[in-house]
Every structure is written in C-alpha cells, then in structure tokens.
Amino acid sequence: MSPRRLRTPRIAPGLARAGALLLGAAAVIAAVASLLGWPHRERTPRPAVVASAALQPDAGAEHPALARLRAHSREFEPTLLKVVDGVHVAIGEGLANSILIEGTDGAVVVDTMESAEAATRVLALFRTVTAKPVRTLVYTHFHPDHTFGASVFAEGRPVEVIAHQRTDALLDEVMDVVSPTIYPRSMRQFGTHLPAEAVPNAGIGPRLDYVEGRNRIALLRPTRTFAESLDLEVAGVRMQLRHAPGETEDQLFVWLPDSRVLLPADNLYRSFPNLYAIRGTPYRDVRRWIASLDAMRALRPAHLVPSHSRPISGEAEVMRVLTDYRDAIQFVHDQTIRWMNAGLAPDEIVERVKLPPHLAANPWLAQHYGRVDWSVRSIHAGQVGWFDGDAARLFPVPPEERARRLQALAGSGRTLAQEAERALAAGELQWAAEMADAALRLAPGDAGLRGTKARALTALAGRQESANARNYLLTAAGELTGEIAIARRDPSKLPLEQLHAFPIDGFMRGLTVRLRAEEALEVERTIGFEFTDIGRHWTLAVRRGVAEVREGRPEAADARLAVSADRWKEIAAGLRGLPATLVTGEARLEGSPVALISTLRLFRD
Ligand SMILES: [Zn+2]
For residue 596, which phi and psi values (nearest 5 degrees)? Predict the structure, then answer.
C-alpha cells in the first residue's frame, strides 16, 4: 500500500481560484499570527514530538474507556471494500472514506480525503480495481476531510465537481474568517500534534492526515451545484443527490436506486454523532438532521456506505441502524428541551439526559466521537443562546478576579454563606450573588440564602442602564423572595377561537418534547390520528423513550382516533376529556382504548 507517485495534476480553473484564495488567506493569517507571536502556521514540517510524561496518560493499568476506544480502531483498518459490483469504499487512508462508483466508461468519486497525500494513497487503491477515468467528483459537504484531496483524482483531466449550493461559501468561511480559531482547536481535537502512540484513533477515522506545512491541499471548487435535489446519470450509473442538512447545512446524501446503495455522508457513522464539535461549529440543527435521516429511512436502503467507518448491508440491519441513530438524536433533543422547559439550566440538564439503555448499547452510538452531554449544551444554546437563565450569571466576575477571590476565600475560613453576606455588606454585589447561589446549591431552598441572593440582585438592578437587565434582575429577586410568581403559560386559558386558530401541526409536533421518557423506555406503541374536518392524518409512534410524530396514516396501529381538529385541540389543552368525547360520539376509536389513553398519559406535564 505504498503511495503511488503521481505527476502533478494540471491546474483546473477552479483550483487556480481556490489556490489564490487559499494563499491569500494563508498570508493574512500568517502575518497576523507572526505579529501576535503566535505560532499558528507551521512553515516547516513539524519537529518530532518528544513524548513527555504529560502526553502519556496511559502508563499503568489500562482504563476500560481506553480499551473500548482502542477496540474501535478495528473500524479503520486500511482496506478497499467492495460493497456491490461497481461500488468500492477506501477506508483507513485518512480521516474519512472515499467512495468509488464505477460506470461503463468512467467513474465517480464521492468525497476526496483531507490532503493530496491521503488522496494519492486512495487513488492508488482505486486503480487496482479500475483504470476508468474519474469524470465526476461529489463533495458530500465542505469539510476538509472530504474536499482537500480532490484534484489528485482528476489526474490532470477536467472533472465535474458537484456539491450543494452552499458548499463554496462555507469553504470560504472556514478558510478565511474563523480559521485562526478553528485551526488550533481542530489540531487539538484530532490530536495531530500528539505522538502516534498516544492516539488510538480519531473517533471517525484512524487519524487526520493534514497539518499545515506538512500536507498539500488539492481542493477543487464545485462546478455544478443544486439546492434540494439533483438526479443525474454518469457513465450509465443513475444517482440521486439530496440536500440533507445535519452535520453541516450543506450536507447531501447520494442514493443509487438501481443497487439500493445509500451514501449517508457524515449524518451517520459508527459513533454517537457529533451534534456539537468542540473544535467550534455554528449550531447544528438537530431537528433537520433527524429529518434527513428519516428521508434516508424512507428509501429502505439495502446498503449503507458512510463517509467514516465501515459499510453495512441488509435492509433490516440498515433500517435498525438508521432508526436507532435518529432516535438517539431525537431523544437527546427532546429531553433537553423538555428539561429546559421545566426550568433547568444546561449544567443540570446534562445530569439528567442519558441515552436509553438499548440505544447506549448499540455500537453505532458508542460515544467515541460525539458526546451526549456536549450535545445537550449545544441544543440548549441553539434554542436560547449562552444565557442559562439564572440572573446571577448575567455579569459573571471576570476570571482573574474570580481566582483572586477564591484564593482569599480559601484562606479565610468563611463558609460560602458567610462570604456572600460579607460581600453584600462590602458592596461586592456580583460576587455576593454568585456566592449566595453556590451556597444555595448546598442548602436548596434556604430562605436566608435566597434573601441574600435577592438583595444582591436588587442592588445590582439599581445600577443597570439596560432596561432588560434591570427588569430581569428585579423580577428574579422577587421570585426568590416569593413576592413574584410567573405562571406557566396555560393553553386552557386561551379564548376558544384563539385555540382553534393554532395549526394542528404545532399541537402534534409539540408533543414530542413533552414525552416522559423515563416512563416510556419499554413502550412501543403506534397511534393513528385522523382529523376529520380537515382531512389530515398523523402518526404518533412511541418507541422506547422517543416519540416520532409524522404526517400520514400508520401502516399498523394499536389505536386509531378519528376526531375533528378543534375537538382534539380542546382535549390537548385540557378543556375536555377524551373519554367524554368518545361517549358523545364526537370522537371515534378503533383499537384499544387502554393503548390510546396510556400512551397519551406519557405526555402529561
Ligand atoms: Zn467527515
């Protein structure tokens, strides 16, 4: 598997533009970095890392977590696998896979590795099964591990480069605008600067074969883009490309209808998904991610060839993996929102949201790459931003001052409560609020501490120019002392015509984030709804901790309810009972009343 030497590919017009952009961005970043004395760009190959004790956490007995991570390396053993006739996947030559689709007189390559070096190794493998020229490249998304090796596959010939219409702009964004932040964080996340023996694997691949200065970028810019879908035929192979936002907003999947092979890109691989990447990413919209996985399920693929980790075959197995994967994402999303709506802060929600046992036991959901707790925080931030809702955290004490204050407190012998009182008397209001808040964690509900915190917040409010800040602090103080109580919004208080005016979609989709998952871990039940006045059908499927709601009739159901949309809204708002509505004949039920009522009880507040 020695890398084959290739002649330098002729530079296609797209590459020339990409090269100029890259050089421009690199020069600016390098100049700024050198001004700051920040060794961001490595101009020369990196020096060999001397493995100090600090980089060897694994001396002595091996922790079970490390044993599991090591075992995961089996996924990435270098190989060229044949999936079906004409479809091969190269695994283990870099962080991602590269997929070869062979036609009559040419080939398509889906995803092109992270560097010219990694791509060269993969092309050598592809050339062991076909000599046909690569006519088309497909980027499943803009990430460097799928795009940076592209021109190697062209071998100097013109190629079509297909991607989603947002891919080009996203490439620019990560290269030009946020690179000084993302690059060093990526290097840390992927362990590229660690000695090889300290890195069992990189979670979704053996390693990232890209370090500035050591590897060559061989990016080509997209030449053909699309918005929602693109059907094409290349060298006699029919391919359907579908926009499938999830891991990135430009993500697509590739469906080969004749062989029923699905390439799900990075919306699915053998690890819990990276719903948030610690290298730094904009919010990944997990609801769209789930919808993209559902679009894949609807195709009932026979083979699944992800862009990281090994492929699987067999319709039943593929469906099981796709379903568990989307369920895991929905579980984390819905339960995060459920607890957030119950008033919990992200630090508290991560303590509660753990995958149901059957999902945690699925090797496709082992947390080798993404993690549930990071996902919870990301979903929370994606919905409501950085502020966790506690007024004491609107203006946190700056880090250096915090360190000084903690040092002083450590030597003082004072308790947290005493420190809060001292700070309040001294006019150190923010510190007083934070200390009272910390003390309340040890004595929840303590009236004296609540009063201390309330006084600190009230005094802070008096110093605010921002009306938002003043109002929030004062109201929070009133809630602490019990003088103010904000009632939860109660739909039953809405005037009936307002309630009826809300679309049924919201009532149905809003159900999922109210599921009491801990009571539903063993429940598998399907309910069909027919809203007789508007002629629409919905399916509610409770599946072991997750509620899937989709429009359309269920194939099989434990109960089917037919009722007008307005009556259903009244039932959902608690204005009328379901049994009474059945008795009057305004609702009709087919199947088990117990199944229906016990299922609906899982969604009570
Ligand atoms: Zn990737």
Answer: -65, -50
Distance 542 CA to ligand 1 centre (A): 32
According to DSSP, residue 50 is labeled: P
Given the candidates 3.40.462.20, 1.10.287.3510, 3.30.1050.10, 3.30.365.10, the CATH classification of the domain at 491-601 is 3.30.1050.10
Cα 196 to middle of ligand 1, angstroms: 21
- The rounded Å distance from CA 269 to ligand 1 centre is 9
Kindly state the percentage of the chain with pLDDT values over 90.
80
Question: Is residue 30 scored above 50 in pLDDT?
Answer: no
Cα 278 to ligand 1 centre (Å) = 14
- Report CA(397)–ligand 1 centroid distance (Å): 39
Tokens 């209001």, located at residue = 429
C-alpha of residue 370 to centroid of ligand 1, in Å? 12
Distance 266 CA to ligand 1 centre (A): 6
Distance from residue 356's CA to the centre of ligand 1 (Å): 27
How many A from CA of 360 to the centre of ligand 1? Answer: 23
- CATH assignment of 13-42+73-304, among 3.40.50.300, 3.60.15.30, 3.40.50.20, 3.20.20.70: 3.60.15.30
* Ligand 1 centre distance from Cα of residue 134 (Å): 21
Sequence-distant contacts of 569-573: CB under 8 A, at least 24 apart: 569/499, 569/500, 569/502, 569/504, 569/507, 570/496, 570/499, 572/491, 572/507, 573/491, 573/492, 573/494, 573/499
List, for residues 198-215, the tens digit of each pLDDT value. 999 999 999 888 877 889
How many whole angstroms from 99 Cα to the centroid of ligand 1? 13
At 4, the pLDDT band (50, 70, 90 cuts) reads very low
Phi and psi of 163, rounded to 5°?
Answer: -155, 170
Contact present, 270 and 306 (Cβ < 8 Å): yes
> 80-92 burial by CB neighbour count: b if 16+ within 10 A, else e?
beebbebbbbbbb
